[in-house]
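Hi support team,

I've been running sequence recovery on a batch of backbones for a student project. Most finish fine, but this one hangs at about 90% for roughly twenty minutes before it completes. I'm not sure whether the input is malformed or the queue is just slow. I've pasted the C-alpha coordinates below so you can try to reproduce it. Let me know if you need the job ID as well.

Thanks,
M.K.
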Protein backbone atom coordinates (compact mmCIF):
# COMPACT_ATOMS: atom_id res chain seq x y z
CA UNK A 1 0.00 0.00 0.00
CA UNK A 2 1.56 3.29 -1.08
CA UNK A 3 2.01 6.05 1.48
CA UNK A 4 1.79 9.40 -0.30
CA UNK A 5 2.16 13.00 0.89
CA UNK A 6 0.42 15.67 -1.13
CA UNK A 7 -0.88 19.24 -0.88
CA UNK A 8 -4.13 20.02 0.92
CA UNK A 9 -5.00 22.60 -1.75
CA UNK A 10 -3.65 24.20 -4.90
CA UNK A 11 -0.97 22.65 -7.05
CA UNK A 12 -0.46 18.89 -6.55
CA UNK A 13 -3.59 18.53 -4.39
CA UNK A 14 -4.61 15.31 -6.14
CA UNK A 15 -2.93 11.90 -6.10
CA UNK A 16 -3.51 9.73 -9.17
CA UNK A 17 -2.77 6.05 -8.66
CA UNK A 18 -3.60 3.73 -11.52
CA UNK A 19 -7.15 4.62 -12.60
CA UNK A 20 -8.06 6.16 -9.23
CA UNK A 21 -7.56 9.69 -7.95
CA UNK A 22 -7.90 11.25 -4.49
CA UNK A 23 -8.09 14.70 -2.90
CA UNK A 24 -8.21 15.90 0.69
CA UNK A 25 -11.67 17.22 1.59
CA UNK A 26 -12.44 19.52 4.53
CA UNK A 27 -16.09 19.77 5.48
CA UNK A 28 -18.10 20.84 8.49
CA UNK A 29 -18.66 17.10 9.11
CA UNK A 30 -14.95 16.23 9.15
CA UNK A 31 -11.87 15.96 6.97
CA UNK A 32 -10.94 12.93 4.90
CA UNK A 33 -9.31 11.69 1.71
CA UNK A 34 -11.98 11.54 -0.98
CA UNK A 35 -12.01 9.57 -4.21
CA UNK A 36 -12.63 12.06 -7.00
CA UNK A 37 -14.85 9.57 -8.82
CA UNK A 38 -18.50 9.10 -7.96
CA UNK A 39 -19.13 5.40 -7.22
CA UNK A 40 -22.22 5.46 -9.43
CA UNK A 41 -21.01 6.77 -12.81
CA UNK A 42 -17.56 8.19 -12.20
CA UNK A 43 -18.59 11.84 -12.00
CA UNK A 44 -16.19 14.38 -10.46
CA UNK A 45 -16.92 14.25 -6.73
CA UNK A 46 -14.27 16.90 -6.15
CA UNK A 47 -16.85 19.31 -7.63
CA UNK A 48 -19.79 18.02 -5.59
CA UNK A 49 -21.92 20.20 -3.34
CA UNK A 50 -23.90 19.20 -0.27
CA UNK A 51 -27.50 18.14 -0.47
CA UNK A 52 -29.40 20.92 1.36
CA UNK A 53 -29.72 20.16 5.07
CA UNK A 54 -27.91 16.81 4.84
CA UNK A 55 -24.40 15.42 5.07
CA UNK A 56 -24.47 13.97 1.56
CA UNK A 57 -22.47 15.06 -1.47
CA UNK A 58 -24.40 15.40 -4.71
CA UNK A 59 -22.58 14.37 -7.89
CA UNK A 60 -22.59 17.26 -10.38
CA UNK A 61 -23.15 14.90 -13.32
CA UNK A 62 -26.25 13.02 -12.30
CA UNK A 63 -27.28 14.31 -8.86
CA UNK A 64 -26.84 11.03 -7.02
CA UNK A 65 -26.02 11.63 -3.34
CA UNK A 66 -23.09 10.00 -1.53
CA UNK A 67 -22.88 9.98 2.27
CA UNK A 68 -19.99 11.97 3.74
CA UNK A 69 -20.44 10.17 7.06
CA UNK A 70 -19.86 6.80 5.35
CA UNK A 71 -16.88 8.21 3.45
CA UNK A 72 -15.29 9.40 6.69
CA UNK A 73 -15.92 6.09 8.51
CA UNK A 74 -14.65 3.99 5.60
CA UNK A 75 -12.01 6.52 4.63
CA UNK A 76 -8.38 6.02 3.89
CA UNK A 77 -5.94 6.46 6.77
CA UNK A 78 -4.60 10.01 6.58
CA UNK A 79 -2.87 12.62 8.73
CA UNK A 80 -2.77 16.33 7.98
CA UNK A 81 0.12 18.49 9.06
CA UNK A 82 -0.03 22.11 7.96
CA UNK A 83 -0.67 22.34 4.24
CA UNK A 84 0.25 18.68 3.53
CA UNK A 85 -1.60 15.43 4.07
CA UNK A 86 -0.10 11.95 4.17
CA UNK A 87 -2.42 9.08 3.23
CA UNK A 88 -2.23 5.32 2.83
CA UNK A 89 -3.78 4.49 -0.53
CA UNK A 90 -5.18 1.17 -1.76
CA UNK A 91 -2.65 -1.04 -3.51
CA UNK A 92 -2.85 -0.76 -7.30
CA UNK A 93 -0.56 -3.66 -8.25
CA UNK A 94 2.61 -1.62 -7.96
CA UNK A 95 1.31 1.32 -10.01
CA UNK A 96 3.29 4.52 -9.73
CA UNK A 97 1.44 7.62 -8.58
CA UNK A 98 1.47 11.14 -9.94
CA UNK A 99 0.42 14.43 -8.39
CA UNK A 100 -1.78 16.93 -10.21
CA UNK A 101 -4.25 19.71 -9.53
CA UNK A 102 -8.00 19.20 -9.24
CA UNK A 103 -10.36 22.04 -8.39
CA UNK A 104 -12.42 21.58 -5.24
CA UNK A 105 -15.97 22.72 -4.67
CA UNK A 106 -16.19 25.29 -1.84
CA UNK A 107 -18.04 22.72 0.29
CA UNK A 108 -14.96 20.44 0.15
CA UNK A 109 -12.31 23.12 0.65
CA UNK A 110 -13.40 24.13 4.12
CA UNK A 111 -15.50 27.03 2.86
CA UNK A 112 -19.04 27.50 4.11
CA UNK A 113 -21.71 27.85 1.48
CA UNK A 114 -25.15 29.26 2.12
Amino acid sequence: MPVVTFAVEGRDNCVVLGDSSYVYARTEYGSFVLSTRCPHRGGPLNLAEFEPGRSRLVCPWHERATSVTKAIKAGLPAVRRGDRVTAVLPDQDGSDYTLEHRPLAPALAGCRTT
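--
Follow-up from support: It reproduced on our side and the slowdown came from queue contention, not your input. DSSP finds one helix and ten strands in the chain. No action needed from you.
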